Amino acid sequence: MTNSLKIAVLHGGPSSEHAISVWSAQGAIAALRELGHDVYPVYVGRDSHWYFSDGQADAGATTANPIRLWAAIELLSELNIDVCFMGFHGTFGEDGKVQAALELAGLRYTGSGVGASAVAMDKLFARRVYQGVGIPVAAAVEQPTDTLDELQGARIAASALADQLGLPLVVKVPAGGSSIGVEIPKTVAEVTDSLQRLSVGVSHLLCEAYVTGTELTAGVLQTADGRLTALPIVEIVPRIAGFFDQAAKYQKGGSDEIVPARISAAAAVAVQDLGLRAHRALGCRGVSRTDVILRADGQPVVLETNTLPGLTPASLLPKAAAAAGKSYRDLIGAIVDAAL
Fold first, then answer.
1. 6-109 has which fold?
2. CATH code assigned to 140-209
3. pTM metric for this prediction
4. Catalytic positions, please?
């Protein structure tokens, strides 16, 4: 671990994952203070105003005067912040936009760079990267949304998708996290509804064949010298939903998360390898978490890669790190070290 640093923990934002970001930041702030760092909580409200709190504040504090993005970037520079800890989740902060602003100001930050963040956040582009390097993915259709606002157009598209992909199928918005904007319709009528509901504000939807099997996640952690470590595989068993949706992820008792996963040693190695391959293919840095379905025939299928995985007490990455002998504080320290 490096000597004491001035670290700004950026969190919140107008994303649909705002509350989860604040929850993650609470844990990161506490861990960084335990490590002896000088921590500045920097909260971004849902209205995109930035709030700089003093060293004693917690995540989500709004006691400071609100300022806008470029004033915030200037203040981070004036404070001589050593590294910005990226506590954002979702389309604000995980998609590369804030990273771009930080880079323009010459500020260091944790996690992946602009390009990897943007590509990984967009499920359509990430899928193309996976396919380009031979990473297995589900059969899918990139569905244009220009005809979906009319009911007849949505019905025609739904029928074609059902014929091509079967039922049920999965409908996803291109950019979203914590399973927000993901639906699994079981009939053509339900597909029609999903297409119309999720198409608002996007040019395409990702529609995938529904893959059944064991839900797994493969975490990757970069060490200070640049080496990548594949963390133990976590098995996910949703208890209150048919898949690992937001409630199953964050509601107490929403799922069982078992680590190490109850799969063969060979399967675990294969899934870890997919996590590493996805991390490298997307150009990730510092940390990532790739979600995988292991089919009954033993074939793994990659769903998506998260460049800023959740760091709440209920999150998967800290559980995987703990199984590898790393405490939560060690994990947070390692993420900072990788940024340096």
1. Rossmann fold (3.40.50)
2. 3.30.1490.20
3. 0.92
4. 17, 178, 250, 289, 291, 304, 306, 310
